[in-house]
From TrEMBL:
Keywords linked to the UniProt accession: DNA-binding, Transcription, Transcription regulation
GO molecular function annotations of the record: DNA-binding transcription factor activity; transcription cis-regulatory region binding
Coiled-coil stretches: none
Pfam families xrefs: HTH_1, LysR_substrate
Gene3D superfamilies recorded: 3.40.190.290, Winged helix-like DNA-binding domain superfamily/Winged helix DNA-binding domain (1.10.10.10)
Stored SUPFAM superfamilies: Periplasmic binding protein-like II (SSF53850), Winged helix' DNA-binding domain (SSF46785)
Protein name, UniProt field: LysR family transcriptional regulator
Family: Belongs to the LysR transcriptional regulatory family.
HTH lysR-type domain: residues covered: 1-62
Transmembrane helix is among the record's keywords: no
């Protein structure tokens, strides 16, 4: 294990490499950017080495820094595994449960039920994209991860917790808002608002349009669901969203897509090696009690 005085210095270096910048590392560590820089410089000075090449605002690993990363990776994994093992051994009258998710919409009912059943367990929720939450899972930083991204990995247990149809979301004043349902062909005359590349909603939207041979009249890319909803309210266009993710009370109209509207699935993952962990078993018992589609293997047929 690291000496206590070195641990924050090594963490600053490690998170800078993992997140690609000092700014992102500072955000992840909840400290200031100058503090991250100072800690890296202190580590370099302590050992008389150079870990990064500085090129303006960019940093690149030196040969020494690159050689150090696999060692720190193993160290961090060991420390996190120890933390998980100790937390798994606690009674459920205390302890903490950590969840990573790409969005709160489908998992919060189970989290609320878990909270009611185990009120003394501290709950932490980390929100990120699919890669971030699954990375956090395999690095032992979260106990379970929720994502719409289907991953076939023999080390992971995958449970399908929801299936949701995509709907067309428009402003209530839009002519399409008065329809009981609509076809994707209407998008040939509309401006379609799309999430950023890598979004599972965008992937599902583009796949559905390709299957139907539909090309929207125009496209606007917007990097968050909240911003897309605001753009719809300002008349910039329409969008496709899973029906469960359309904000309630947001003065938006949802129109079902027929026939064969695209469907997205939501999955919960945990490490198979931790299937018998008390915290995970407790959460899964709550999850299985909810009206969700739980599938116990990573090779489900969805």
């Amino acid at each position: 294990m690291l000496a206590p005085q070195l641990a924050p210095l090594v963490a600053a270096f490690y998170e800078t490499v993992r997140h690609g910048s000092i700014t992102a590392a500072a955000r992840h560590l909840s400290i200031s950017q100058p503090t991250v820089t100072a800690r890296i410089q202190q580590l370099e000075k302590h050992y008389g080495v150079e870990l990064f090449h500085r090129r303006g605002s960019r940093v690149e690993l030196t040969q020494t820094g690159a050689a150090l990363m696999p060692l720190i990776d193993r160290l961090m994994e060991s420390e996190l595994a120890i933390d998980c093992a100790l937390r798994d051994g606690r009674t459920l009258d205390a302890g903490s449960f950590r969840l990573g998710t790409t969005g709160p919409y489908y998992i919060l009912p189970a989290v609320a039920a878990f909270r009611r059943r185990y009120p003394n367990v501290q709950i932490g929720i980390e929100v990120g994209n699919s890669k971030e939450v699954l990375d956090a899972l395999v690095e032992y930083r979260v106990d379970v991860a929720v994502s719409s991204n289907r991953v076939d990995d023999p080390t992971l247990a995958r449970h399908r917790i929801a299936s949701d149809s995509l709907v067309l979301v428009v402003d209530p004043s839009h002519a399409l808002a008065r329809r009981r349902s609509t076809d994707l062909n209407v998008l040939a005359h509309e401006t379609l608002l799309l999430r950023e590349p890598g979004s599972r909603t965008r992937d599902a939207t583009e796949a559905a349009l390709k299957r139907r041979g539909v090309a929207p009249a125009a496209l606007i890319e917007i990097g968050s669901r909240e911003a897309i909803c605001e753009a719809i309210r300002h008349g910039l266009g329409c969008s496709l969203m899973p029906s469960g993710e359309v904000p309630r009370g947001a003065a938006l109209a949802s129109v079902p897509i027929e026939p064969d509207g695209p469907v997205m699935h939501e999955y919960l993952y945990h490490l198979k090696s931790r299937s018998n962990a008390r915290l995970i078993e407790a959460f899964m018992s709550v999850l299985d009690a909810k009206p969700m589609e739980a599938v116990d293997t990573y090779a489900d047929a969805s």
